[in-house]
Amino acid sequence: MSKYENVEVHRMTIREQIEQMERDTLSPFACLSVNSRGRDVDEPQCDIRPVFQRDRDRILHSKSFRRLKNKTQVFLTPKGDHYRTRMSHTLEVSQNARTIAKALRLNEDLVEAIALGHDLGHTPFGHAGERVLSRLTDGRFKHNEQSVRIVEKLEKDGEGLNLTWEVRDGILNHEMELQAATLEGRAVRICDKIAYVNADFDDGIRAQLLNEEDIPLELRKELGFDTKSRLDHLIHDIIINSMGKDDIVMSDASWQAFLELRKFMFDNLYTNPIAKSEEVKAEAMIERMFHYYMEHVELLPDKMLHMLQAGEEKSTVVCDYISGMTDQYAITKFEEFYIPMAWQVDGF
Prior knowledge:
Elements: H1 3-11, H2 14-25, H3 51-60, H4 63-67, H5 86-104, H6 108-117, H7 126-136, H8 143-154, H9 165-172, H10 183-206, H11 217-223, H12 227-242, H13 252-270, H14 279-295, H15 302-309, H16 314-323, H17 327-338
Helix pairs in contact: 3-6, 5-6, 5-10, 5-12, 6-9, 6-10, 7-14, 8-9, 9-10, 10-12, 10-13, 11-13, 14-16, 14-17, 15-16
């Protein structure tokens, strides 16, 4: 580097240097920070952080992200210290996706932002809560769409986080039947599936509902004979088969085996009557609270009332409030409305 080139580098902000490093080192299939479609509301650039890094930080510091630590992954409000919550699942998705992104030279900041935000819209009690709110709104409530609604409208008392288009696209399209516009979003989508299938099996063993030998032998031969080996196999398979391609894919053999393993999990854990015995109660509780708030909207927080006054549909705002609850807060509010308290009288 000449002395003149060195002077030019020092004139660049740290953000601009990082953006140049992305140009120099990332794959031609990666989404560069400078190529972002931008935000709905223009704002000055940070002098240190590129746009996707800023998005990651905004999600990490949001209230919705913090609440994930007390939301169900598979087992409702588990008492054991080592069962996954929605937050630990989110962090596992992020770690797996970043491993793939680093190997494929994709944009790790974008991957991490999408991963940390993908489940913000999950309800208390996991998919049980989601099923109820979806049924009560004629299918209009979906957790991936609610995650986008949170970052666009609900966080920061209605201001939203003003995230880039690419992050919101990845959050919206992380479901199995959808497809993100960026490879970073597609990496998160597939890592979401392999994370919950493998981690949930591990939790199923901890709960003494599953054993390693329950998985069909042909699947274990293809994917691995324990949870760690299967996760390692799948991540390696994705990296090897996606290298130099404008897509995120597995080999046919691994993909078919993974789909069979996922079906095994639905048949033996996700619909297991022992594991899901409390879901009937949780669903009934969410439904009762939905109807209660629909009849008593004045009990919603002020920021929710302001949304009603601004013209938002009542059922949408009630879903916003209930879906944002943690498991324990939902139980507390239900008890407040429906469980009689012991009578107390001051004096002797």
